[in-house]
Amino acid sequence: MLARNDLPSRNEWFDAFARKASTFCGKPVVFLLAVGIVLVWALTGPLFGYSDTWQLVINTGTTIVTFLMVFLIQNTQNRDTMAVQVKLAELIIAMEGAKNKLASVEDLSEEELEDLHREYRQRVDNTGEALASKRRSKGRSR
């Protein structure tokens, strides 16, 4: 018998499930299966006289699948985003001269992010102007 600590937590279970389900659902064969289901449904239209029930079958099915997939996709996207943030943080911290405060920029408020974006946009513009000026002066000295 497994001790309580040997069982995966609910989060671990869901993460593993979401990862496997997302990987599986992203395969071409699953897309082709979905297309096949829609084609079978469409071809059975005349058999069921294009009834309200016939239409309700596809509407209900697609709504349920979409509803459940939203949670799986969001979980996968959250995990992937966090992984990218960790990798970027490692690069920022390891790079000499980089501003380490940027390693946790995802924790800033939207207003703080917008301010930081404006600051960096200004730095980009200033750097572009400085490079253009340097190129012009280099061209004159030749």
Characterise this structure.
The chain has 142 residues and is an all-alpha fold. The chain folds into two domains: 10-98, no CATH class; 108-142. It is 75% helix and 0% strand. It is built from four helices and no strands. It has helices at residues 10-25, 28-43, 52-94, 110-141. The longest helix is centred in the middle third of the chain and has 43 residues, at 52-94. It is elongated and about 80 Å long.
Summary, kept brief:
By secondary structure, the protein is mainly alpha-helical. The chain has four helices and no strands. The longest helix has 43 residues, at 52-94.
Rg computed from alpha carbons, rounded to a whole number of angstroms: 27 Å
Structural class, from helix and strand content? mainly alpha
SSE order, as H and E? HHHH
Major sheet summary line: none
Offer a few descriptive terms.
4 helices, mainly alpha, 142 residues
List the helices and strands and how they pair.
Layout: H1 10-25, H2 28-43, H3 52-94, H4 110-141
Helix pairs in contact: 1-3
